[in-house]
Sequence to fold (78 residues):
Amino acid sequence: MKQQTSLYLDAIRICAAIAVFFSHITRESLSANNPIILFLGQFGQEGVAVFFVISGIVIAFVAKEKEHDLRSFIVARL
Fold:
């Protein structure tokens, strides 16, 4: 995977995680009067789906293309 593609996927995952975060804080009374938080908070379920789909793509790529033995897998994770 090209570095540019990897960075793009990371950026999308970060945006998805932020959407989930805002979804959680919309349940708190602090966000009741903030239209930006309320707007972003409505995308929590989509954020979860996007995050896990992209994570699955990254995991599948790593499993197929990268570390082929247990030792190199553990070293890469450390």
In short: The first helix runs from residue 3 to 25.
